[in-house]
């Protein structure tokens, strides 16, 4: 349910764009982002910072798109989000000495370990520092590349092509990056007992 809700604004944006237009799709994107925030609050009694940031970007750029009836504003949304994420990885690592990719990976892996009940005792997952550094730089490069690629496609190709790229291209690139990450950390995952 949570995964579906994560992509709900994008799915509805795409559907409404295909059946109506970019301005209605942008309005739906803003409304579903509000629903996403409400769900996060009622389900977890807290709202992740990233959801607030994504909502603010959608509200500002989407609001300008609707107000001025100019799709150029909404085209910048993905670039602003991906550039912000890329900058966050570098700033957190080299200014605050924190590797956000490592923190996210360890959290996800430990959560998956608990849900799968792979062992009776808690199992702290440790990834080698050089792997975490490589993954942090890899994700920085991917996010920065997506930020630039989005604007290039937005201003080089048709609106239809950009919308299709935003939905399928960005998801595809992200999926491949996640696969590469999983392959890179696979040998550090705990094994099931009895194997």
Average pLDDT number: 85
Q: How many extended strands?
A: 0
Largest sheet: none
- Overall geometry comes to globular
Distance separating the two termini: 31 Å
What fraction of residues sit in β-strands? under 5%
Series of secondary-structure elements, N-terminal to C-terminal:
HHHHHHH
Summing up helix and strand content along with how strands pair, one would put the structural category as: mainly alpha
Total number of domains = 2
Tally the helices: 7
- Parts with pLDDT < 50 across at least 5 consecutive residues: 118-122
Instruction: Indicate the radius of gyration in whole angstroms.
Output: 19 Å
Residue share in helix: over 70%
How would you characterize the overall build of this protein?
The protein is mainly alpha-helical. The chain folds into 2 domains: 1-68; 71-195, no CATH class. It has helices at 2-19, 22-44, 49-68, 72-94, 100-116, 129-156, 159-185. The chain is globular. The two termini are 31 Å apart.
List keywords for this structure.
2 domains; 7 helices; mainly alpha; 195 residues
């Amino acid at each position: 349910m949570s995964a579906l809700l994560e992509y709900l604004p994008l799915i509805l944006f795409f559907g409404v764009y295909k059946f109506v237009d970019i301005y209605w799709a942008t309005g739906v994107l803003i409304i579903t982002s509000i629903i996403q925030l409400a769900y996060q609050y009622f389900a977890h009694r807290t709202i992740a910072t990233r959801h607030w940031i994504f909502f603010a970007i959608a509200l500002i750029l989407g609001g300008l798109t609707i107000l001025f009836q100019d799709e150029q504003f909404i085209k910048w949304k993905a670039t602003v989000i991906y550039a912000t994420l890329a900058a966050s990885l570098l700033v957190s690592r080299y200014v605050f000495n924190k590797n956000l990719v490592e923190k996210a990976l360890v959290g996800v892996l430990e959560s998956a370990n608990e849900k799968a009940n792979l062992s009776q005792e808690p199992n702290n997952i440790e990834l080698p520092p050089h792997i975490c550094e490589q993954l942090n730089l890899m994700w920085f490069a991917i996010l920065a590349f997506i930020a630039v690629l989005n604007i290039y496609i937005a201003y080089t190709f048709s609106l239809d092509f950009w919308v299709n790229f935003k939905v399928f291209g960005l998801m595809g690139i992200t999926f491949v990056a996640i696969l590469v990450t999983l392959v890179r950390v696979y040998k550090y995952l705990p094994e099931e007992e009895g194997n």
